[in-house]
Amino acid sequence: MEVLLVHKVVGALPPEMMKTGAEMGKKLLAKPKDFVPGGKLISSYSARGIYMLVCVWDVPNVDSLMPVMEQMKMVGWNTDIIPVEKTEVWLSKLG
Q1: Which CATH class is domain 2-94?
Q2: What are the angstrom distances between the C-alpha of 38 and each of 61, 63, 86?
Q3: Is 20 helix (H, G, I), strand (E, B) or coil?
């Protein structure tokens, strides 16, 4: 199952939380399976001018994302989880 994650900062972050979040992001990009068991990070983008990250993951189920979502929340980020499907799959369902 593929999901789109939209991470947004809750408010102004103190430098310590920004540092912790940046370190967590580096570790996640280096070894994504340590954070999301059975998951594969397909792509990750950061917005310009605002604190927002957008990621696309291929995961076995949404529950596998919960540990990393809890960690993100602890360092000041809220996340919207949006299930997505490839255009080919969507078109095949149309008819």
Answers
A1: alpha beta
A2: 9, 11, 19
A3: helix
CA distances (Å), 28 to each of 14, 23, 49, 89, 91, in order? 21, 9, 23, 29, 33
Cβ–Cβ < 8 Å for 72, 79: yes
Per-residue pLDDT, 21: 84
Helix spans in the chain (H) = 15-30, 66-74, 87-94
Of all helices (H) and strands (E), which one includes residue 77? Answer: strand 77-84
Per-residue model confidence as pLDDT tens for the chain (95 residues): 999 999 999 888 888 888 988 898 899 889 998 889 999 999 999 988 888 999 999 999 999 999 989 988 988 899 999 999 888 888 888 87
